[in-house]
């Protein structure tokens, strides 16, 4: 028995030695060119080979051994995770397909956006009229367990995979809510999540427009809602981005263009000079109607960009609570075999220079509360209605004064 074990160990050692010899030979033959092409030193590559040999030789469940592609993707995931940034991440082909499906606006799951902060998996926001929303999940709830599996410290993509599943299947998610000692359990049934970007209605003379995300069609759907508001003789607009986790940067600029005419929206500040940029709204698209923005701790990323630009240019006040504070920009880099990686390439600042990352935006009118489908019980919305009606009255007074001057 000992002899057999000794032979296995010797085989592993010889395998590692041969890899080192081959790499050294290549380096010698090419005058060092080969070494410069390698992603790591020869010593580290030998160690990686040794790790693989050890796994394949000694892991107890031989039928569960990962194939080469899975091992390779695992090494890439580990390399990216070493950057220690929650938004810099590797996606294997399956994860990339799921993410693209989500950006198109339809997928199976519970209906909540999640993110990582301080090593915790947090709910950024539940999506309106989804299992998570109906169950009472709130922004900043920490996901601790999915069914019987503890997910603390787990990769965000792996947590997403456990939350999703076939429609009509049940799942119990255990969460820790700030200020409460005991975990809260949410029993939910997965369903196809159809993300409705824009919901709007007239509240007497005010157009209420709920913007749920910044996906490919968001700006056009919002533009259509504003056209309906103007044709309905609305005196002002409430733009509700509560629990809106953001999305595409270019869509944020397009959305801001519906309220600001040729103004600076956001400044990007990156390590590489050419990444630094200033993005401006298009001219000729902005409505003249007064606007108030509703936001809360679930408003993140593109929501904060738009809200910050509207606030800084004094286009309208912000009502609600401080926003989430996701102020960094990610770019997707394609990799072979339909894999990809996201890298945080810049942080952004509002037109006045305010850095949002990990800080959030402060509202002009601080109002605690949360969205409520019963309008009269939604304290934040009721305050926004008061603010926008004051703005409508002020706008009417200015228009009358201008008319008298003529």
Strand order of the largest sheet: 10-11-12-15-16-19
Mean of residue pLDDT?
Answer: 87
Q: Quick one: how many beta strands? A: 19
> CA-to-CA gap between the ends?
104 Å
Please tell me about this protein's structure:
A hairpin with a 7-residue loop joins strand 7 and strand 8. With 406 residues, the protein is of the alpha+beta class. It has 3 domains: 64 residues; 89 residues, PDZ domain (Pdz3 Domain), CATH 2.30.42.10; 201 residues, Alpha-Beta Complex (2-enoyl-CoA Hydratase, Chain A, domain 1), CATH 3.90.226. About 5% of the residues have low confidence. The protein is built from 11 helices and 19 strands. The strands form 5 sheets. It has a 6-stranded mixed sheet with strand order 10-11-12-15-16-19, with helices on both faces. Strands 1, 13, 14, 17 and 18 form a 5-stranded antiparallel sheet that branches. It has a 4-stranded antiparallel sheet with strand order 6-5-7-8. 36% of the residues lie in helices and 25% in strands. 32% of the residues are buried.
């Amino acid at each position: 028995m000992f002899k057999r074990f000794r032979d296995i160990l010797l085989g592993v050692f010889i395998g590692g030695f041969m890899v080192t010899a081959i790499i050294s030979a290549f380096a010698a033959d090419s005058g060092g060119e080969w070494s410069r092409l390698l992603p790591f030193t020869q010593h580290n590559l030998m160690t990686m080979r040794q790790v693989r040999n050890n796994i394949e030789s000694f892991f107890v469940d031989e039928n569960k051994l990962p194939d080469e592609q899975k091992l390779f993707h695992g090494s890439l995931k580990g390399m990216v995770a070493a950057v220690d940034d929650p938004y810099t991440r590797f996606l294997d082909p399956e994860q990339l397909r799921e993410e693209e499906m989500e950006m198109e606006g339809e997928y199976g799951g519970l209906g909540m956006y999640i993110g990582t902060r301080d090593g915790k998996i947090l709910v950024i926001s539940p999506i309106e009229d989804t299992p998570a929303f109906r169950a009472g999940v709130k922004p900043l709830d920490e996901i601790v367990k999915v069914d019987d599996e503890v997910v603390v410290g787990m990769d965000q993509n792996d947590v997403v995979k456990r939350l999703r599943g076939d429609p009509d299947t049940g799942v119990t998610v255990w969460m820790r809510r700030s200020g409460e000692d005991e975990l809260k359990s949410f029993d939910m049934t997965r369903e196809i999540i159809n993300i409705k970007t824009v919901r709007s209605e007239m509240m007497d003379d005010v157009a209420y427009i709920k913007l749920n995300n910044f996906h490919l069609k968001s700006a056009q759907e919002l533009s259509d809602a504003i056209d309906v508001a103007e044709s309905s003789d609305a005196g002002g607009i409430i733009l509700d981005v509560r629990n809106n986790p953001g999305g595409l940067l270019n869509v944020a600029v397009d959305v801001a263009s519906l309220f600001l005419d040729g103004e600076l929206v956001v400044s990007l500040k990156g390590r590489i000079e050419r990444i630094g940029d200033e993005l401006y709204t298009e001219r000729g698209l902005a409505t003249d109607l007064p606007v108030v923005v509703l936001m809360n701790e679930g408003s993140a990323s593109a929501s904060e960009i738009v809200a910050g630009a509207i606030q800084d240019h004094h286009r309208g006040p912000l009502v609600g609570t401080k926003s989430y504070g996701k102020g960094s920009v990610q770019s997707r880099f394609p990799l072979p075999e339909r894999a990809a990686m996201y890298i945080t390439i810049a942080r952004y600042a509002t037109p006045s220079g305010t850095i949002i990352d990990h800080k959030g935006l402060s509202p002009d009118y601080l109002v605690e509360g949360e969205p409520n489908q019963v309008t009269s019980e939604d304290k934040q919305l009721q305050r926004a209605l008061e603010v926008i009606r004051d703005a409508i009255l002020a706008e009417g007074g200015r228009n009358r004064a201008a008319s008298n001057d003529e």
